[in-house]
């Protein structure tokens, strides 16, 4: 009897511990817990410059402020899809992706155009030429205020703490777009798209039936069911020649009209995107554990989700990679789950821990009752 009392007390404390943690996310304020890329498998970016060096990255610039970005850019194995940026203190502070300038695509009249189109510059910025003379374009996001990447001094208008900022020009002191941490603060230009399991509720800038295809904005955002920012991504028209990197691993997602439901609600899309030769590619960058980005209230689905997605980073255990296949996802019922409204779904893993705690408590009180 006494032992069960102890167990109950322990579980109560355990349960409170969880609720404490969920209601007081103080340790999350300064930085994102982890930044992982959904490449077709999960890949966690090194949180520190020192770790990046150990994992075989090389530093590209030695002066913190460059014309194209602020911070120290790192690259590994010719993978230019997601290059981490570290701040003066060696902390992960941003990410830059580079796309080649030799792709072809379509405008709103289904005419062939050069990519990337002028209409999406910025945030796409003209970058540098590679050794073959081909021009590359970059897009860059920062995880803290851009003015604090190369300077430790916080000012009234540049407060420390985690965030998401998209670079929108060559003068980073002023040329950036601040992304709200809560979806309720998004400007109405961001159109709500589907909620997709393990990705969250997607928002696309200006995306609707009338959008000319050359204006397809390269940044999208995803928020969890409670409206908290969880991830963002790039999406570009076309298909790059360097679809796979030299390491043979990380690749972009690639979508055609048939596989659009991987990220889009097809009823929102302009007709030029339905052109059968139209294609897009991109990448998801998670700022939090993707398992929190659920879309449905159903306990079964939640359990399924939690069980089916180990988060082992590939850099540590390559043999246990989680392979994600866009086709599997678009063929499963999961993709249709967004017909449940995002706003009606409130279940998060945090509440799940509450329920788990309560279940434990219930079981224990049952045990107590049965004791002689
Ligand atoms: C472009 O192609 C799509 C799909 O084939 C079609 O629905 C649309 O009407 C075309 N647009 C124009 C302007 O021709
Ligand atoms: C979704 O929202 C619409 C309008 O807000 C509502 O009519 C509909 O019943 C909701 N659907 C679900 C599944 O909750």
TrEMBL record:
This is Uncharacterized protein. It comes from Sinanodonta woodiana. Residues 1-21 form the signal peptide. Keywords: Signal. The keyword Signal applies. The lineage of its organism: Eukaryota, Metazoa, Spiralia, Lophotrochozoa, Mollusca.
